[in-house]
Amino acid sequence: MLDSDMKAVIAGQRLCFAATVSADGRPNLSPKGTIRVWDDHHLFFCDIASPQTRRNLEHNPWIELNVVDGLSRRGYRFLGKATLHRDDEVYQRVTARIREEEGVEYLVEAVVLIRLERVLPVISPGYQHIAEESEMRELWKAKRTRLDQEFDEHVAKSSRVRGT
What we know:
About 35% of the residues lie in helices and about 35% in strands. The longest helix has 25 residues, at about 135-155. It is of the alpha+beta class. It has two domains: about 5-125, Electron Transport, Fmn-binding Protein, Chain A (Pnp Oxidase, Chain A), CATH 2.30.110.10; about 125-164, no CATH class. A seven-stranded antiparallel β-sheet has the order 2-1-5-6-7-4-3, sandwiched between helices.
């Protein structure tokens, strides 16, 4: 189910947005910074600070992950059923892999392993005006530089910065 492009987008981003539904039917959207490919039919992420996502999945295992490359303005929607893993082989393998790849050890409540049932592309309407992905990437590299500079200026003045 997962092809080389899907795997490359995931590897290049390491950030996704996970959508779940609460027991009372309310949507929950939460960023996940440890998204990875498990195999050709599964993705996973670590539940590091996601008690609501975890509660929602315990009630209803359906989840959708969106992974989009900001420069290319394209990516994928991954829909499937999640299982939560704590203190088992999946948990041990995932936490060891994340520790090795990121060089830090997170306090992981659970590993969320998603068996994919559907994958759909996400493609920006910007491609109606820009034909080539390389051109889109160059356009957004220039925009990102300006946007990052503006946000850096904001952060320097902000009292809302965490960790300081």
